[in-house]
Amino acid sequence: MTKIGLGFRSEMLDWNPAEIEADFFEVAPENWVRRDRGPLYSLRDAGYPIRLHGVSLNLGGSSQFSRDFCVICAN
Asked: Which domain range does residue 53 map to?
C-alpha cells in the first residue's frame, strides 16, 4: 500500500486538515524550534498521523553532529 504524506508548515495553520487528501503529515522538527507547537499537538490530538523528518541533523554529511541542536529539538 502506497502512502502519501504532506509536509505540515506554519503557512498551513488556517487550512482544514479534513479537506486535505493525505495519509499523514510530515513535520520537520527544526522548523518548529522556538515556535508555538500547539498546532502540531492539535493535529496529533485530532488523530492525524504525523511523521518526523529531520533535515538539519547532517547525518552522513561533512559537518560535525550537533548534540545541542538535538536537545533544542527534543525540548
From this structure: 5-74
pTM for the full model?
0.69
Cell numbers given for 33: 524550534
Sheet of strand 24-27, all strands in order from the earlier edge strand to the far edge: 5-7, 24-27, 50-52
Distance CA 13, CA 11 (A): 6
How far, in Å, CA of 64 to CA of 66, rounded?
6
| Number of domains forming the structure of the chain | 1
Per-residue pLDDT at 63 = 78
Residue 22 phi/psi, 5-degree rounding, is -140, 145
> pLDDT grade, residue 26 (50/70/90)?
very high
Percent of the chain whose predicted confidence (pLDDT) is above 70: 91
- Strand, coil or helix: what is 15? coil
